[in-house]
Design goal:
CATH superfamily: FAD/NAD(P)-binding domain
Largest sheet: 8 strands, mixed
Radius of gyration: 21 Å
CATH topology: FAD/NAD(P)-binding domain
Strand order of the largest sheet: 5-6-4-14-15-16-13-19
Shape: globular
Strand content: 15-25%
CATH class: Alpha Beta
Number of strands: 21
Number of helices: 14
Number of domains: 1
Oligomer: single chain
Structural class: alpha/beta
Length: 442
């Protein structure tokens, strides 16, 4: 079971038409809805289950620029500006604080890797810097482990995933967007190379514009349109603790643990060095697409052959009708957390910070990260189908970049001047033979 989420009120009435239908009620889809509704368009958001019920509420809660792929940095900076305005934008405190983030280094090799990022980030590195000695120690109060150095960005921050997307949803509804929970989209209708309508489990909505922001489900939905989207899932496990009165502020990533202070005084804790991929039929379908990043990250990757593979094979054998109903069969994807990995990470954290020693674990959970072969998202129109915008594949970056991604997607729908150059996020790069060049892991 995922963490408790602030409730989102769903509309009972299905409109017969809308300027835009957004598929997916996570932070990306909801942010897109907010900016479109504020621009005066009629917007419907269809969510197959609970708004923000999947990765949008299950992530670490980091809002960072540090370490991002250079192609993402202009959009991340715009997203950070929107996070600064979030309180006034949505009328609620979503916990955003610029409390800084540390990447802890145990060796000169770690330092060299981060210095390489500083070089590649160029002017977008802003206030990121390598620190050590007393400067680093001052940011790790109570630590009994001495780290060689760290990459530190004071302007990076944190927010509350269980509050942010629901707050954006409420603001979108206030601006006029219609939010439909427990309303799966079964198919997208087209005619003459353009979007014409969507068929939901509640009925049909006539529209000329669809935004697919369905996270890990996006590839399956697009396949029904004959569109190939290489995207796979990474299972990310997290635990949260009770309050820690004298714990470190902000967030940090280390070789054996990662932590982020929560608004409630507790901490979100994970192991950021291991990635778990549940093998599914798409793992074979997109194997060659992901080979470059697999070669780069294989030391940190674990494959799990189990229930997801069998379920995927079963759906495939039952044909297209069963595939459409799969969205309704799994209202909220709730993968099992790796409690052994989490417990090991928490034990390592306690060695470094004894103040955590008697702090209870409140909950374990897991979410599914939607990853692309180059770990850069798709935020793009689609040349083959007029009226379609895809916003998916955020590769673990979706929460922090979410408001900026939603703004960019809304610009693309409207044909407005985009907030940043959308070229790095174009869909066609994944299907036209462009060489995949991942610079970060997922």
């Amino acid at each position: 079971m995922g963490p408790p989420i602030d409730p989102v009120r769903s509309s009972e009435t299905l409109p017969t038409s809308a300027d835009v239908v957004i598929v997916g009620g996570g932070i990306i889809g909801l942010s897109t809805a907010l900016f479109l509704a504020r621009a005066g368009l009629s917007v419907v958001v269809c969510e197959k289950g609970t708004f923000a019920g999947e990765q949008s509420s299950r992530n670490w809660g980091w809002v960072r620029r540090m370490g991002r792929d250079p192609r993402e940095l202009p959009l991340v900076i715009e997203a950070m500006r929107l996070w600064d305005e979030m309180g006034s934008l949505v009328g609620r405190d979503v916990g955003f604080r610029r409390t800084g983030i540390l990447y802890l280094c145990e060796s000169e090799a770690d330092v060299a890797r981060h210095e390489d990022w500083l070089h590649r980030a160029g002017p977008y590195a802003l206030d990121s810097r390598i620190i050590s000695g007393p400067a680093l120690a001052s940011l790790l109060p109570g630590a009994t482990t001495t780290f060689h150095a760290a990459l530190y960005t004071a302007s990076d921050g944190r927010a509350e995933p269980q509050k942010a997307a629901p707050a954006i949803a409420a603001a979108a509804a206030k601006a006029g967007a219609i939010l439909l929970g427990d309303c799966a989209v079964r198919s997208i209708e087209t005619g003459a190379g353009a979007i014409s309508a969507v068929e939901t489990e509640r009925g049909r909505i006539v529209t000329r514009n669809v935004v697919v922001a369905g996270g890990i489900w996006s590839s399956q939905l697009l396949r029904s349109l004959g569109l190939r989207l290489p995207q796979l899932g990474i299972r990310s496990s997290v635990l949260r603790t009770g309050p820690v009165p004298r714990g470190p502020d902000g967030a940090a990533w280390g070789p054996r643990f990662a932590y982020r202070k929560r608004l409630d005084g507790g901490y979100t804790i994970a192991d950021g060095t291991r990635s778990l991929h549940d093998v599914v039929p798409d793992s074979f379908r997109y194997f060659t697409d992901f080979l470059p990043i697999l070669k780069r990250e294989w030391r940190h990757m674990r494959l799990d052959f189990g229930a997801p593979l069998l379920a995927g094979l079963g759906h495939g054998m039952k044909g297209k009708a069963a595939a459409a109903l799969a969205f309704e069969k799994t209202r909220v994807l709730d993968p099992a957390p790796r409690t052994d990995t989490l417990d090991a990470a928490y034990a390592a954290l306690k060695v470094t910070f004894p103040v955590f020693e008697n702090v209870p674990v409140v909950q374990h959970w897991a979410g599914m990260i939607d990853a692309t072969p180059d770990a850069v998202p798709v935020i793009s129109t689609v040349e083959a189908l007029s009226g379609l915008v895809v916003a998916t594949g955020f590769s673990g970056h979706g929460f922090g970049i979410g408001p900026g991604a939603g703004r960019l997607a809304a610009d693309l729908v409207r044909g407005a001047t985009p907030i940043v150059d959308p070229a790095p996020f174009r869909y066609e790069r994944l299907i036209d033979g462009t060489k995949m060049q991942p610079t970060t892991g997922v």
